[in-house]
Amino acid sequence: MSAPRVYVPADAAALSVGADAVAAAIAAAAQARGIEIQLVRTGTRGMLWLEPLVEVDTADGRVGYGPVNPADVASLFDAGFPDAGAHPLGLGRIDALPWMARQQRLSFERVGVIDPLSLVDYRAHGGLAGLQHARDTGADAVLQQIIDSGLRGRGGAGFPAGIKWRTVAQAPGPRKYIVCNADEGDSGTFADRMLIEGDPFALIEGMAIAGLAVGADRGVVYLRSEYPQAIAVLRRALALARADGLLGAHFDIDLRVGAGAYICGEETSLLESLEGRRGQVRAKPPLPAHHGLFGRPTVVNNVLTLTAVPWILRHGGKAYADFGCGRSRGSMPVQLAGNVRHGGLFECAFGITLRELVVDIGGGTASGRPLRAVQVGGPLGAYFPESLLDTPLDYEAMAAAGGLLGHAGIVVFDDSVDMAAQARFAFEFCALESCGKCTPCRIGSTRGAETLAKVSRGIAPEANLKVVEDLCTVMTDASLCALGGLTALPVMSAIRHFREDFGP
User: Fold this and answer.
1) pLDDT (0 to 100) of residue 157
2) Same domain for 306 and 363?
């Protein structure tokens, strides 16, 4: 009989609350007691309030304990936890917990389940079946499956991935590229990091399928420097993939680490950075699909888009499109953060409402105070008041409500928040992160912050709010990219829904 398998996350979120110390304590206690175990380091399940979460295999599935600290380890062994013994920290079967049971885990089906650096585990859980199907059916069939799936870019713009891929496939040229935008810089977002740390081969497989579909033999992952754990995991995964023959002969991937500029999350700034220049926005057209990295046709997709691809190829485009609603098909990994009781990652089909996510699943505010605002889509996303929490989570519904879905980061605020300060922060953030290439963004954001500061001091609030509205219109209509173009969303939504915070 094999030794029981004990799982402890090595994800950055778990590490930040002592997962390494818990793993070390478990290994030491097992050795001291003469108990043989297999200690497996995984990604996180996404229930961040339970980290460090420890799991053990049983005949009925994985059983969890958490949150565990090193001082709990002795009592866990006393209770026989390697054999799923009862303990006050016991959670029961992980897949039966409401947080897990309500999800539709497609992209995240293996995260928290497997050793992220084991190709044996990856294959045993369906990995590489999508790539094999792509090789068996050919580029045209792959493109059709992606189009049929209705997959749209998960980085924020929501452009149909299949149309972008087909454009690159049809573009002439001796070399084409697949670029993964892993520069996850929005506040309240961590899905890209979790996927790379918990299932890096899914990203590698998705990029390889994209390369086959469009005729690219080279891929690049642009990963933010603030994610050292993800960098280390992906670097090791790429080496293992090359040693296995998964990468190298027909398609290979380079890893490039960004220097922390928010603007490099914009695709053309990212390309400028990859080419060794300062991260600045390019005017469009030409589009990257025609004239991208080093002037070659380039697919630029984010992590969540590319990691959805293996599931689609394994199960079919129609199966993926059966999830979701309207023009928003498939699933979206939602990140719950801010003042919320149960923060973490929750993957579900499009169509669930903000209220269900924040109140039913997230448990409301962590402070216990009344919920006042929810920001969706990062620092450039709109603020939704409680009255708009029944808005469905899909691209069109969010736009109709005056917001955007973006990377599906949801940040919760209770009634102690100062919404005038939040609006001013949006301008200040834009001013700080602007690449400076266009005047509306560079100057408009600075003047906006100054004007809202006057409002906060009670200086001609009505007149100055009109100036802010005019600045927002100019920034929306005339900025080169979404940084300046979307700053109006948080500013104007705060003014529109929380006017009382801006003076008489």
Assistant:
1) 75
2) no
